[in-house]
Write a structure and sequence with these properties.
With about 550 residues, this protein is α/β, with parallel strands linked by helices. The chain is about 40% helix and about 15% strand. The protein has a six-stranded parallel sheet, with helices on both faces. A six-stranded parallel sheet has the order 11-10-9-12-13-14. The chain has a six-stranded parallel sheet with strand order 16-15-17-18-20-19, with helices on both faces.
């Protein structure tokens, strides 16, 4: 970088963000980082969005970064703002999203005196963020902001926290020009590619498993070519169903507890498992049951520390997912798998695909119990109403079992849901999606619990002119925890019951459209009215408290018994 003319420390931070490709910053403003806000006011390339809560700002930044594949910024003041942003920072960590959190800090003179809202923020976020730093002087603000942005995107993407002392932001510094950040993309070891192909030559039940790294690398098309060239079935990791087209005849589903049992059985039955772009997290692997002890694992990821599972990887390869997929495709084209083996794979995949398709196709099964809408009816209608390029955001909660099992994703980067199960994600993520891709239809699915954690961000959506449709599935309880209470066998209902809320009226009070749905057949009419609105729209759907899980639908059983 070359130096020229003077500027302020706050402007140096903004210059580094511009070089990193940042074009959106989400914030609850604070006096401790006014120097950055003032610089952003003069920077037309970065849109500043004022949010109603720092948690909403962080969720928006995490979702935006995942969707566009570039860093996004959230900003909060000192420890109180940082604490509120921590939920989104942790979400970005487990989602591998390149988020940059700017946190104001007390002045240098008052550091280490427990001044107003003071904490050693860099130390506090060390275990949560990918990297944290507090620049010690104004002259290093630009340098360390630029490094933070680079850390966010190099290797496995993740959140970084940059702590900014208030007094440094107004100091005069030499202005620097920063080069555009281009993260390195490692190519696979040719020996690892060759060994993988040899492993497949003796396999009977091989399986490809794709994760979020495929989406981050833009590698979906390459992974489809790989599956077709090898003739292998493919699955996607939990909450990343859009990594591989669900309508492809070789697709066998998304892993996780909401999938039908055939998905878990097939994953555990794999004798060779090739995982690309995923860290094999707890819920996606059925509490680390997969890979099975007898499975021979090939693990490919950009992050060396992510390689491995419950069993040691037989082949561990540090590589960009697209480069590995292309290399293995080329190797298999040059030296194809034996035709008789491919024929056995193809027939097994055909049978397994038909089984999975039956288990993941929703049915019109009649009315739910009186006064409630059937959750299966919601997804039955959505499968017919949503265009292929619609972006669906999902909050955390057991309502998610129905869309996760029954909806289909055929294009990459059309689904956003938090890997860490953070409630309150859905509405902010929908706002971020509409800001990132305003021409696309955006639909948010959220329970009443998660909606009322960040639903005030509807005002942000109205103000920022980001129309989307939110479907609030309301059972007046924390359904996931209620299910867990029932699993204990005691059936004691403690702290999970919630009161009624007029969610449609709440939405209208914030300037959004608010609609109520009371019958299954009213869903398409309400949805069409909502999607035609020129503002955010909320559809309040009362669902049966007995419909706790897509796996144990006692409400459906009650209807059948009538």
């Amino acid at each position: 970088m070359t130096c020229r003319r003077s500027t302020t420390g706050g402007r140096a931070v903004v210059d580094a963000l511009v070089a990193a490709g940042v074009d959106h910053a989400f914030t609850v403003p604070g006096e401790s980082f006014l120097g950055v806000l003032d610089a952003l006011a003069d920077e037309p390339r970065i849109r500043v969005v004022a949010t109603r809560h720092e948690g909403g700002a962080a969720f928006m930044a995490a979702a935006y970064a995942r969707l566009v594949g570039r860093p996004a910024v959230c900003m909060g003041t000192r420890m109180v703002g940082a604490a509120n942003m921590s939920i989104g920072i942790h979400t970005a960590r487990q989602d591998s999203a390149p988020l940059i959190a700017l946190v104001g800090q007390v002045t240098t003179e008052f550091r280490h005196r427990e001044a107003f809202q003071e904490v050693d923020i860099a130390q506090a976020f060390g275990p949560v963020a990918k990297w944290t730093v507090e620049p010690p002087s104004a002259s290093r603000l630009g340098e360390l902001a630029y490094r933070a942005a680079r850390e966010a995107v190099v290797g496995r993407p993740g959140p970084v926290v940059l702590v900014l002392r208030e007094d440094l932001l107004d100091e005069e510094v030499e202005r620097a020009e920063f080069a555009r950040i281009v993260p390195p993309r490692p190519a696979p070891d040719p020996e690892a590619v060759a060994r993988t192909l040899e492993l497949l030559r003796g396999a009977e039940r091989p399986l490809l498993l794709f994760g979020g790294g495929v989406l981050a690398a833009g590698a979906t098309a390459a992974c489809v070519r790989l599956a077709e060239t090898l003739g292998l079935p493919a699955m996607t990791i939990l909450r990343r169903p859009d990594a591989f087209p669900n309508d492809h005849p070789q697709y066998l589903g998304m892993t996780g507890g909401w999938a039908p049992t055939c998905v878990r059985e097939r994953l555990l039955a794999a004798d060779v498992l090739i995982t690309i772009g995923t860290r094999l997290n707890e819920f996606a692997t059925y509490h680390y049951a997969a890979p099975a002890a007898e499975t021979r694992l090939v693990h490919v990821d950009v992050d060396p520390s992510s390689l491995g599972g419950r069993v040691q990887a037989e082949i561990a390869c540090v590589s960009d997912p697209r480069f590995f997929a292309e290399a293995l495709t080329a190797a298999a084209s040059a030296a194809p798998i034996a035709p008789d083996r491919r024929a056995r794979w193809a027939e097994r995949t055909r049978v397994e695909r038909e089984h999975w398709d039956r288990e993941t196709t929703p049915a019109r099964r009649g009315s739910a119990r009186d006064g409630f809408v059937d959750q299966q009816a919601v997804v039955w209608h959505l499968r017919r109403l949503l265009p292929a390029d619609a972006i669906v955001t999902s909050d955390a909660g057991n309502f998610g079992g129905w869309p996760h099992r029954y909806l289909r994703w055929t294009l990459p980067r059309t689904f956003l849901a938090p890997t860490n199960g953070a409630m309150g994600y859905g509405i902010p993520a929908a706002i971020a999606a509409k800001l990132a891709l305003p021409e696309r239809e955006v639909v948010c699915l959220v329970g009443d619990g998660g909606f009322l954690m960040t639903g005030t961000e509807l005002e942000t959506a109205v103000r920022e002119r980001t129309p989307f449709v939110a479907i609030v599935l309301d059972n007046e309880q924390y359904g996931t925890i209620r299910m867990d209470q029932e699993k204990t066998g005691t059936h004691r209902r403690i702290a999970t019951a919630l009161g009624p809320v007029d969610i449609a009226a709440f939405a209208r009070s914030l300037g959004a459209m608010g609609l109520n749905v009371e019958r299954d057949d009213d869903i398409p009419v309400a949805f069409e009215e909502a999607r035609r609105a020129d503002r955010p729209a909320v559809i309040h759907v009362k669902i049966d408290p007995l419909q706790l899980s897509v796996n144990t639908d006692r409400a459906a059983a009650a209807v059948s018994a009538r």
